[in-house]
Amino acid sequence: MTLVDTSRHVPTDAPLIAPLVERWSPRAYDPTAELSEESLRTLLEAARWAPSANNVQPWRFIVARRGSEAFTAVHDALMGFNQAWADSAAALVVNVAETVDEAGTPRPWAKYDLGQAVAYMSLQAQHDGLHTHQMGGFDAARLAEAFGLRAGLDVVSVTAIGKVGDASALPEPLREREVAPRSRKPLDEIVIAAA
């Protein structure tokens, strides 16, 4: 078995904790790696402890392990090139925001809160030697129907989780993107005002 270099460290403009410096979004996953029940529970527990407006915790997760019918349903709802690589992930997690509660009350911060929960889950995964990749290319209506989601439960994103695999197994141009240098906009471009 070929050892895979999972480090993609880049210099940062300020010192950051290791999971932030090490985090990146691979597309090449090890198709033999499994996600244990204990690992999965830890990731979901991290998400559970994210902050939320009024502590309503409006996040819901559909967890689908590779090889399950649920995984096939999620994979089949992915669009474009996401289907070309996501089948190797150990799990696909559908991230759902409760934007309207069962009484019909809107939850305007639900998607923001869900984003924080997914970020917590992603950082815990990185800490635990796993990697995540967030996807926006999917058919939300198809996922809602497949999993019987009521109105007010909005599919926001899908997260692939697993161990990094061999980038050479990816088709072009995904292989090229996998090994391309990482970059971010400079701070002075994203900070509007600082006093």
From TrEMBL:
<protein>
    <submittedName>
        <fullName>Nitroreductase</fullName>
    </submittedName>
</protein>
<dbReference type="Pfam" id="PF00881">
    <property type="entry name" value="Nitroreductase"/>
</dbReference>
<comment type="similarity">
    <text>Belongs to the nitroreductase family.</text>
</comment>
<dbReference type="InterPro" id="IPR000415">
    <property type="entry name" value="Nitroreductase-like"/>
</dbReference>
<dbReference type="InterPro" id="IPR029479">
    <property type="entry name" value="Nitroreductase"/>
</dbReference>
<feature type="domain" description="Nitroreductase">
    <location>
        <begin position="21"/>
        <end position="74"/>
    </location>
</feature>
<keyword id="KW-0560">Oxidoreductase</keyword>
<feature type="domain" description="Nitroreductase">
    <location>
        <begin position="79"/>
        <end position="163"/>
    </location>
</feature>
<dbReference type="GO" id="GO:0016491">
    <property type="term" value="F:oxidoreductase activity"/>
</dbReference>
